[in-house]
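Assess this today:

___
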Amino acid sequence: MKRLAVVVVLAAVLLPACGGTDRPEGVVERWLISLNQGSAGQPQKYAPERLSQRILPNWASRDPGNLDVIEVGRGRTYLTTQVSLDPEHALVPYRVKMVNGPVGSGIVILHKRPAGWRVFALEPSAANLSVPSKGGQRIGRASPGVWLIGLGVAVALILVSIGLMSTVGRERPVPAR
């Protein structure tokens, strides 16, 4: 019973740490993917209708798959003290290509709300922010040290699972009389 209590306490402490990983880049990507789903998508969760119409006009009446390429680059987060702006906002570069049409690109401005990041405005592309295909930074990047730590954790988990599996399935010795 004590072991179960320890597991429950560890789960209660560790699981909430995984719940708050909403980054601005992820919100922009989910918004564009939702637009690409046609009437099945829900882009209003991420952005106002007027901005969704600027990216993909009449998105709700289209079939899924109108955007051939969706690319999002690493954004920048800023804190501001201006009264007119939310305290925290982000600029994220994007690029979309229609299946049989033009390429659109620019900067998405997001504001941090209590419920999470929300798309606020679209701006033309900027020289200091671009998508990876145009020389910008990738969203996810890990140093060699992080990869080595991950490899070490994987090896440790494998050894633990081997140890646990070796104790299961053995016949119990019959006590001698």
